């Protein structure tokens, strides 16, 4: 029995299939945790969803910002981007079933000592609060009137956490932290413009996992979302978006017997393969 954490797939079903072959994955024996951004930008988002839905019970999937974007586009809240590759899902005969499955995915999970999110965790949150706040958004997303959340989810304000936040401002901060966060100030003010490496952080900002005294310091956290980051250099911050859709790799981390230890396995993506 083995447990694997997998970074951003983003519609790269061929790479996902080859990675599962590489790790000799067996759904009757092994367990997968996918860290969000299951869809978009890659060539076959529909096949990714179909594959993961068929693995229900042995594959646990988080929501990322691209997955939420799909739900927003499907609900008519957002217009598709020119670089989106979501049409096959949006025009699928079983579109309602696909979208219903997707919106019932969590935004945070914990397993074998690892806290898992798509993007980041604010400095003021410990693991228990992160999971609790994620469940608030999940409840709204899984309710009958989930479209109301879609209409109120987008925006960069408020840009920091406050326990007194209520309503959609509260949910928006939670969503932004868990699915979009890369950089913040030591006090937890979030910055969303920078998508390059940590070295490109504006003055006063630093990677969320490098904030001194953050409440998850020492708590192993696995995340994706930041394809330009590379290795964090920290045993308690495992970055698993290795840029598959951008010509990099799709990476799985096999959890070790000792909490916080992993072994990485990667496959190159078709986008990275050059003629000759």
Produce a short descriptive summary.
The protein is an alpha/beta fold and 276 residues long.
Task: Describe the overall structure.
The chain is built from 8 helices and 12 strands. The chain has helices at about 15-20, 45-55, 65-75, 85-90, 95-105, 125-140, 145-150, 165-180; strands spanning about 5, 30-35, 60, 110, 115, 185, 190, 205, 220-225, 235-240, 250-255, 260-270. The strands form 3 sheets. The protein has a 5-stranded mixed beta sheet with strand order 3-2-1-11-12. A 4-stranded mixed beta sheet has the order 4-5-9-10, covered by helices on one side. A hairpin with a 2-residue loop joins strand 4 and strand 5 (about 115). The relative contact order is 0.17. The mean pLDDT is about 95.
The outline comes out as: globular
Number of helices: 8
Secondary structure category: alpha/beta
Number of beta strands: 12
Strand order of the largest sheet: 3-2-1-11-12
**Poorly predicted spans:** none
Give Rg in angstroms. Answer: 18 Å
The string of secondary-structure elements, in order, is EHEHEHHHEEHHHEEEEEEE
Fraction in helix: 25-40%
Mean pLDDT comes to 95
Largest sheet: 5 strands, mixed
Proportion of residues in extended strands: 15-25%
Distance between the termini: 39 Å
Blueprint (SSEs and pairs):
Layout: E1 3-6, H1 13-22, E2 31-34, H2 45-54, E3 59-61, H3 65-74, H4 87-90, H5 95-103, E4 108-111, E5 114-117, H6 127-141, H7 146-152, H8 167-180, E6 183-184, E7 190-191, E8 206-207, E9 221-223, E10 237-239, E11 249-255, E12 262-268
Parallel strand pairs: 1-2, 2-3, 5-9, 9-10
Antiparallel strand pairs: 1-11, 4-5, 6-7, 6-8, 11-12
């Amino acid at each position: 029995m083995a447990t694997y954490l997998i970074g951003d797939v983003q519609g790269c079903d061929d790479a996902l299939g080859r990675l599962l072959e590489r790790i000799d994955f067996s759904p009757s024996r092994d367990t997968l945790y996918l860290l969000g951004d299951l869809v978009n930008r890659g060539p076959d988002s529909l096949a990714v969803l179909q594959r993961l839905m068929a693995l229900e019970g042995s594959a646990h999937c988080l929501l990322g910002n691209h997955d939420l974007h799909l739900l927003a586009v499907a609900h008519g809240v957002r217009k598709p981007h020119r670089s989106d590759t979501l049409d096959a899902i949006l025009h699928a005969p079983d579109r309602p079933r696909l979208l219903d499955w997707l919106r019932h995915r969590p935004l945070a999970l914990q397993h074998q000592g690892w806290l898992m999110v798509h993007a980041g965790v604010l400095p003021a949150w410990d693991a228990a609060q992160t999971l609790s706040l994620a469940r608030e958004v999940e409840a709204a997303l899984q309710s009958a009137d989930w479209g109301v959340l879609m209409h109120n989810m987008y925006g960069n304000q408020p840009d920091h956490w406050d326990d007194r936040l209520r309503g959609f401002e509260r949910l928006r901060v939670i969503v932004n932290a868990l699915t979009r966060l890369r950089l913040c100030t030591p006090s937890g003010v979030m910055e969303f413009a920078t998508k390059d490496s940590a070295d490109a952080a504006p003055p006063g900002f630093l990677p969320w996992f490098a904030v001194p005294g953050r409440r998850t310091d020492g708590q192993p956290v696995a995340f994706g979302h930041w394809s330009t980051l590379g290795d964090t250099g920290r045993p308690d911050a495992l970055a698993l978006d290795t840029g598959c859709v951008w010509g990099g790799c799709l990476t799985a981390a096999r959890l070790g017997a000792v909490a916080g230890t992993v072994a990485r396995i990667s496959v190159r993506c078709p986008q990275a393969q050059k003629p000759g």
